[in-house]
Structures are given as structure tokens and as C-alpha cells.
Amino acid sequence: MASLVSRQDFPVSLADIEAAAKRIEGAVVRTPTLLSKTLSDLTGATVYVKFENLQFTAAYKERGALNKLLTMGETRGVIAASAGNHAQGLAYHAKRLGIPATIVMPKPTPTVKVMQTESHGAEIVLHGELFDEAYAHARTLAEERCLTFVHPFDDPAIIAGQGTVALEMLADAPDIDALVVPVGGGGLISGMAIAAKALKPGIDVIGAQAELYPSMYCAMTGKDMPSAGDTIAEGIAVKKPGAITSAIIREAVDEMLLVPERDIETAVSLLVQIEKTVAEGAGATSFAALLTHPERLKGRTVGIVLSGGNIDPRLLATVLLRDLARSGRLARLRIELQDRPGALFSVIRLFEQHQINIVEVYHQRIFTPLPAKDTFIDIECEARDAAQMEKLMAGLREAGFHVHAVKIQ
Questions:
Q1: pLDDT at 59 over 50
Q2: Per the database record, which ranges form the ACT domain (predicted)?
């Protein structure tokens, strides 16, 4: 791959990105790039984490939005379509600069993102189920109201602003020889790839995309795969990548990796447990790529971008509990027993003997194929680890009970 220092056909250059860095300096947080020993041990790579969830609006999108606002001319106001983070970044900095902002968001956008965007003074319009529908409506409103449309990714000023992430990472951790970046429309990875390849031509730049929305992966590989479904990474659920970003990515990005939903959930949970930091699904996708494809970057010095932390609290709770269940620390055990006095006590006593905590008990007599004199109970419980849970189940079977764990996918 040719060095990008001399490329003249890209609409964004290293000089543009460096100018954006000076332009936005002091108005966005220079977030830390920190070595994570535990994530390194888990993945077999030396892993540096860029904590963009520490921005004021909890996402990197502020960088591009502010750079765009500072480089455009007179306007009656700005309008954007966004699943949330671009919306918040644009609304926040537009309010700071005294510019009216209208944001069109897909209807399923997490409530936390809608509320946070609204709190920055923007007018919120909910329209459509996916980004593409919200985008089309925002374009219509821009013409009707004579507003300046600010694209979330397919704009040179946006791309230049996002590229400042790579400048900071390589300044703080110059040994990084591979960058793994979440990809939706491609604005972040486009800017980062231009900056990184110009500063360090041998560096690998790798995209991480949710398996349910492989639009950029298809653009790179020529494959035809659907982009649909409920993904926890709604911030990168883009059906159609940008024209500008696609052209840059085909030239400047080395590979695109797809990540399944389960690994994105695991990544969100591990970041809470290990780094004590909150990542939304899209924000955790770069780390998830290391979990899905450990052989790809084993032994390398890898920089991952934790691009955002705006996750609905209820969804976060669900993800954490599901991960505990998959690890065997939380379980729902279904136990058959005779419906007579003392039967439940004999079961509970075994839980006490094995020192396993009972969280909930569900007793079912009616909706069961068992004989009328029998019943089953579901007991949600928590243990130290899967081995302790297995010992309890063995003890229940030895006592004559039929028991099995209710599986989670």
C-alpha cells in the first residue's frame, strides 16, 4: 500500500487533520491512551485503549462536529441525522457557538441519547427505524428550512476532525503498530487512517464492524450481505456507507473484521469489569474484534478506540447479567419435585450447603406437562464460578431431583 503522505486525490490530508487539531484544541477533551495489562493478557496483544467515552458528550463525534462548525460560513442553523453521538456532539458545540441545531433521530434511538441531545438545546425530530430513513428526512427538512446539513461521516471537515484521534494516540503511544477502529459510515477510520499512514506508513489500520451491519465490509470485499437486525451497536448500524469514506477506506484501510453480537456484549461487560469504564455497543466493537479474531493481532502492539459510552442503563444491566449467565456465575436452574410440604425446603437446604445465593424463585404448578401431583421451580442463583454451580447440580441429582440449567444463547 502506497504511503498516503503524497496522495493528492483524497479530500483530506494530514495537514487538514493537524489544522483541525489546533482548531478544536481546548474545546474537546484530550482523552488518555492507556496500556491495559489485563486486556493484553486476554488477547495476546499489547493493548492500548483510547478512552473517547471521556469526552463531555461521551463520544469522539465532538471532534468532527466542532471542526465542521468552525470551518463553515454564515448559517441560519444546522441540521443532522444521527443515532445519537453525532447529534450530541453537534448540539453541544452548536449551543456553545450560538448556532440553532435540529437533530433527526431514528425512533429506536436509546432514550438516554435522545434526552442528552435534547438537554443541549437541540430540536429533536424522531423519524424512521434506521439511520438511512432519518437521514433522508433530515435532508428534506434542510431544504424546507434553509438549514446547513452536517453529515455524520461523509464530509471532509468531519473526517479531518475525527482523524485527530490518531494524532493523539500515536503521540501518546508511538509503539502502536496496529489500530483497530469501530466502523459504521466510516468517518472515524477514514480520518485516523490518513493520519496514521502519513505519520507511520507501516502501521496496520483495521476496521471492526458489527456482523449484522457489514456495509463497509461489503464495500471493501465486493461481497453481498444483508445489513439488518437489532444490534447492540446501533451507533454503527449503517446500511449505506459514505461515498467519500468508502474511497478512502479502500485505499487506506488494511482489513475489515466482522464481529458477532455475543462478542460485542462480552466486550461491553469486560470493559466494565476490567477497566471500570462504560462503553456502548459501538464503542466496544474494536475490543470485541480482538476477542473474535485473536490470531489476527496476537503479539502486536494494538491501539483500540473506545469510541463512545452512551448506553441505555437498562440495556447495560441486561448485558452485564447475560454475561454473568454465560460465564456460569449466574444461572436459572429448573428443578422438578413433588408438590408436598417440605419439598421446597429440601431443595433450598442444598443451596445453603453449597453456599450458592438464591436471587429469585418461580414456582409453577399449572403450566407444566408434569403430573398434577408434581411441579417444577425455577431458581435464579449466583455462584463464585461455573464449577461451584456444577457441584450444586450434582448434589441435587444425588438427592433424587431432576435438574437442568435454562440455557442462554
A1: yes
A2: 332-409
What residue ranges define each of the domains in the chain, with the CATH number in brackets? 14-59+156-312 (3.40.50.1100), 62-149 (3.40.50.1100), 327-405 (3.30.70.260)
95 is an active site residue = no
Q: What is the DSSP letter of 235?
A: G
368-371: list long-range contacts, CB under 8 Å, 24+ apart.
Answer: 370/336
d(CA 108, CA 28): 28
Dist CA 294 CA 10 (whole Å): 32
Q: Give me the pLDDT at residue 7, please.
A: 58
Catalytic residue among 13, 82, 190, 307: 307
Q: Number of helices and strands (H, E) in the chain?
A: 16, 14
pTM, 2 dp:
0.89
Q: What DSSP element (H or E) covers 18? A: helix 14-24
The single residue of 61, 68, 113, 197 carrying the catalytic annotation is 61
Say if residue 11 is exposed, middle or buried (CB neighbours under 10 Å; 0-12, 13-18, 19+). middle
Side by side, the strands of the sheet bearing 204-210 are 33-36, 46-51, 301-306, 178-182, 204-210, 255-259
Residue 307 appears among annotated catalytic residues = yes
Does residue 3 surpass a pLDDT of 50? no
